[in-house]
């Protein structure tokens, strides 16, 4: 993988891509060409963080508490609210539905008649991040292909699982910036970073989130069979989420649902001459 030193563009392949789409600093000097360097896993798998709620039905987080509430990966917070117990991030569990006593007010149901909850049945510490030097690359093409298949399957499992949880537990996203909130009504921290946010006093504009807000698929160019991208043929090339493209270049089968955006349904001309004949 490569990342441009001047803009956020990333590319999956053995060399950078040739398209002059750079709008980063001094890109006019480079005539729009990207300046490719190394990249981080965070560029491929964008980290999205959200506040961890100690009570998902509790009062909304006020502006002045914005630095006291922990921020954790939004996906982890969604899992916690859906039932995952992590000792570091406790949260209130209700075993009976709440009792409404007004339009917005409620009280917790009396749970005295329930048996004591089983202690710490599923509790285990959150997975530690593996440090970079402990990660070893696959040693053979076969191992690479198997790892690519497995990784792609995990990516799909992750996305499908998150989508199903989002049907039960609300996820909100700001309409002006990428801020995500797990919970029904957003938080009240006035730290919206969007353009023109002053008019709204920095308040986020909460709306229903979609899966891509929670797990952003960073699209990259899909490398055609020919193994090279040609500047003149840009309009023919398709794209795929970076994780998917890495797995495919590693030897995984292309999942049916990505074939259209990858332009695998149309066939890519091998040269400008051939392209002109098609058009
Ligand atoms: Zn790479
Ligand atoms: Zn660039
Ligand atoms: Zn915002």
From TrEMBL:
Residue runs in coiled coils: none
Boundaries of every APO domain copy: 3-88, 173-256
InterPro entries: APO_dom
Record-given protein name: APO domain-containing protein
Domain of life: Eukaryota
Entries under PROSITE patterns matching the protein: APO
Pfam families documented for this protein: APO_RNA-bind
MF terms in GO: RNA binding
UniProt source species: Aegilops tauschii subsp. strangulata
